Structure formats: structure tokens, C-alpha cells
Amino acid sequence: MLIQQVSIENETTLKDVRIENGKFAAIAEHLTPGDNEQVIDGKGKLLLPPFVDPHVHLDSTLTAGDPEWNQSGTLFDGIRIWSARKQKLSIQDVKERATATLKKQASHGTQFVRSHVDVTDPNLTALQALLEVRDEVKDFIELQLVAFPQEGILSFPNGKELMTKAAEMGVDAIGGIPHFEFNREYSVQSLHFVSDLAEKYNRLIDVHCDEIDDPASRGLETMATLAYETGMHDMVTASHTTALGSYNDAYAYKLFRLLKMSQINMIANPLVNTFLGGRFDTYPKRRGMTRVKELDADGINIAFGEDDIKDPWYPMGDGNMLDPLHLGLHVAQTMGYDQIMNAYHYVTLNGAKAMHVLDHYGIEEGKEANCILMNRGNFYDALNERAEVLYSIHHGKIIVQTKPIEVTTHFE
Fold it and tell me: How far apart are CA 282 and CA 199, in angstroms?
């Protein structure tokens, strides 16, 4: 396959890209088509590495309104409603919903996904289902699974045993929820348990951390300390960290030093963070998102996820990573022209770093041929106009092809 005349990641010089045996074989200004070689005319359009969603919940996806709608819009009511819904989970139920959402994500150019899976279920039904899904979707999406203790580790009966069982069953990462544990002592102990379990089974770490507008919620300092002292460094990811937006600046300044030393990854989820955040405020009302602009400026890896797609925590979403990106730039106030042009990093490279897939991610000769061709010439235009993904290519094969919408106007 030869993709002709594309702008690779906003480059002004157009390039040709040859794909052979599922890998990027050559990238140059002009490559001659071979006999019977499939040719795609890029027409100067934007070629990007595929979108990455490093934080989503596929076990709960497409359950919004079942058994009830979250009328308060709080995180805690979402947990309550999900606790009731998961009592009737079946493997088929989870697989059907998760696969439908993954196909929707893939249709928008996402090829790498990390899903948290609730393991505060004695039967581990959702985990069994998603382990099957992980294998079944491998031809179009690379899926990672995180053992996520939605109702706590120390605060849920047999929480430690369930987390250990999940690790033995083959999850890719170990999760946690320190801000939902009963008390500060349990919070700290849970993070030590997560770190020890990940080291024992050689797993990544991705914790729901400080997802609350409480400046006293400080699990992040414990996470970063453990990442630094254990040497796990960038194998560790802190998701949400919305409380960081409520910390006083003196403490945040001190914390940033530790975050840099630890080399920890961070993930913000703009759609859900802003929807759930500030629910207990009158006015002024907090935006509900972590300090994206400051983290990025300080060289700390920060990526965006979609988090929830039509479930008890968030009633909307269709798997398009341009949506959390668009809102995230507004909330973080990172909308200079250059910032917008390079904003795709939040939903591509930065997420790939957090997922530890950089060895086979990116448009480089010799790497797996995974890429998307967008229907605009640069990312500023692509984001502004919600450009279609004309082609999504995974392992050298076209998995999605989109015909642009034609609009006919009849203005006088």
C-alpha cells in the first residue's frame, strides 16, 4: 500500500508513505508505486498516529438509565446506581455492550484503548467478559484492562483477594480508588497494596486518584512517592486527580517537584470531570479538571481520556476523541494557535506513553503501520471542523473508510 502526498503530523512538506507486511516500510517525499500496489491519494491531508483512549469503562458502557438515571450528576450517585446494575451482569451482556462501544471508537480512528474493569464483584463477571473481548477485537483495537476496585480495596469485603485474583487472570494494569476508601489510613494502605501487587505480577499501575473536589484528598503524593521509590516511574499513571485543581498553589508547587522526579503519567477526562466536578459548590463553581496546562508546561506527561460513554456517570458520548480534546482545551485555557495545532498529542502520543506502547506506536519506518488520515490538511482545521477520519489503517490493513458528508445549500 502506498499513501501519497500527506502531511505527517502537520508537516508542511508532503510525504509518501509505503506500507509492507503490516509495517511502515518507507517514508519519503516521492515514492514510485509498484506494480499492482494499492494507492491512496492523500491530497495533502493530515496523517496522524491513531487516536488513543487511555481511560474508559467498557464494563458499564451503554447502561445509562438502567436501572435509573443519575439525576444528581454526582460521582457518588453514579457508584450507587452502578452497584445496583452490576448485580445483573452477564458475560454476554458485557461483551455485547463493550464490543459495540469499541467498534464505535474504532470508527472515529481510535486504535488503542485502556479500559478499567470493576473487580468489586465476587464473580468477576465483567473481567471474564472483557478478557475475551480483548482477544476478539485485536484485529482492530489494542485493548488493555485495568483491575479497578470501584467500591474500594480495604473498604470492600475481600477487596485484596479480588484484586489479586484479577492480577492472576491476566489484567494489564492494577488500579485503585484511594479517595473512596473509608479513611485516610485505608487510602494510603490501598496504594501500597496496589504498588506491591503490580511489582509482584509485573503489571502497570493506573489509579483513579483524588477524583473529588476536596483539597484534603492527597493520594497523588503517595502515588508519586511510591513510583519514585520503587523505580516503577512511568509504569505508573494517576487518572483524574481533580483535587489538584483545588490545592493551594504553595502545596501544588511542592508536589510538582515530586511528580517530575517520579516520572508518573497523568490522565484527565475533560467531559466527565467537568460534568461531575463542582457538584457540591454553589458559586464560584470549580471547573472540575486537573491542572492540565501547568502539568504540560512542566514536562509531566498528561493525556486525555473519554472515561464514560452513556453510563451512570455520564449520559452522553460516542467514542470520538475529538470531543474530550475540544472541551479539554477550553477548560485548560490552552487555545493559542500552536497549542491547538499540537493538541493532538493529548489523544495520541501522550496516551501511548501512558499505555507503554511506544515501541510499536508512531509513524516511523519499521514500526507497525497504524495511522489515520483526516479530512483536513492540519490539526487546527481538523479539530475546529470535526474532520472525518477518511482512513483508519491498523497493522497495515484498512479497517475504517469514511466518505465525507456532502452538504447542499440553497441560499438566496
Answer: 43
Q: What is the rounded distance in angstroms from the CA atom of residue 296 to the CA atom of residue 192?
A: 27
Coil, helix or strand at residue 392: strand
Task: List the Cα angle 239/176/137 in 5-degree steps.
Answer: 70
Q: Cell 452502578, residue?
A: 82
What tens digit of pLDDT does each residue of 8-58 get? 999 999 999 999 999 999 999 999 999 999 999 999 999 999 999 999 999
266 and 387 housed in the same domain? no
3-state secondary structure of 9: coil
In the structure, what pLDDT confidence band is assigned to residue 222 with cuts at 50, 70 and 90? very high
144 and 16 together in one domain: no
Say if residues 140 and 112 touch (Cβ distance below 8 Å): no
Q: Is there a single domain that holds both residue 205 and residue 325? A: yes
Cα separation, 358 vs 11, in Å, equals 21
Taking a C-beta distance cutoff of 8 angstroms, is the pair 157, 186 a contact? Answer: no
Q: Per the structure, how many domains does the chain have?
A: 2
How many whole angstroms separate alpha carbon 91 and alpha carbon 131?
10
Of 202, 120, 121, 129, the closest CA to residue 168 belongs to 202
- Answer whether residue 19 is part of any domain: yes
Q: Please tell me the distance from the alpha carbon of residue 121 to that of residue 119, in angstroms, as a whole number.
A: 5
Condensed to tens digits (0 to 9), the pLDDT of residues 103-150 reads 999 999 999 999 999 999 999 999 999 999 999 999 999 999 999 999
> Contacts by 377-382 with C-beta closer than 8 Å and gap 24+?
377/7, 377/44, 377/45, 377/46, 378/7, 378/10, 378/46, 378/341, 379/10, 379/46, 379/48, 379/340, 379/341, 379/342, 379/343, 379/344, 380/337, 380/340, 380/341, 382/46, 382/322
Catalytic residues: 211
- Which H helix or E strand runs over 386? none
- What lies within 8 Å, CB to CB, of 398 at 6+ separation is 391, 392
Instruction: Compute the half-sphere exposure of residue 52: CA atoms within 13 Å on the CB side of its CA.
Output: 27
Query: Are 99 and 32 within one domain?
Result: no
> Distance between CA atoms of 85 and 367, rounded to whole angstroms?
42
